Amino acid sequence: MPEFQDHIVALIPRLRRFSVALTGNITDGDDLLQSTVERALKRRQTYNKDKKLESWMFKIAQNLWIDQKRAEARRGQTVDLSESHDIVGEDGRDKMEKIQMTRRVMAVIAALPEAQRLVVAYVLVDGQSYKETANHLDIPVGTVMSRLNRARKILESQLQEA
Fold it and tell me: By C-alpha distance, which of 145, 148, 111, 132 is closest to 59?
């Protein structure tokens, strides 16, 4: 099934953006992406060809992330030790400001309620339509719009304070 694998490879950039948005950092996002692709390849026989592959893949990522959050809740909070970055070469000030802004945005997104974070990941990060997002999450389009509106207000107010 090289065609199946080719479609998965084509989805990787979008899935990565989505995974990073869900997890709140690049390292965990990449881990989620890898787990998603692994699961899709292992369970390709469960894929219903009448449905869009991207919907199936995004649902796998979403379910894996939810499972991870539940496991973390049972285990307790972990600390990311890779918070320090050596900046060499480029203008350190510009690079640091970009890193700090990215961290602030990711932290604010990570602090959103789960339902709002999912909508932000689908619409703002991945660029999916409200209708596609509603289909992925199995909710009405109006709910997507409402959650996204609340999330945008939180993002705007939190980022202006920083």
Answer: 132
In this structure, CATH architecture of domain 1-77: Orthogonal Bundle (1.10)
pLDDT in tens, 9-27: 999 999 999 999 888 889 9
Predicted TM-score of the model (pTM):
0.60
Please classify residue 31 by burial: count the beta carbons closer than 10 Å to its beta carbon, then call 0-12 exposed, 13-18 middle and 19+ buried: middle
Q: What integer best gives the mean pLDDT of the chain? A: 86
Query: Which of 38, 39, 32 shows the shortest CA–CA distance to 16?
Result: 32
Each domain of the chain, given as residue ranges in start order, spans: 1-77, 90-162
- Which CATH class name applies to 90-162? mainly alpha
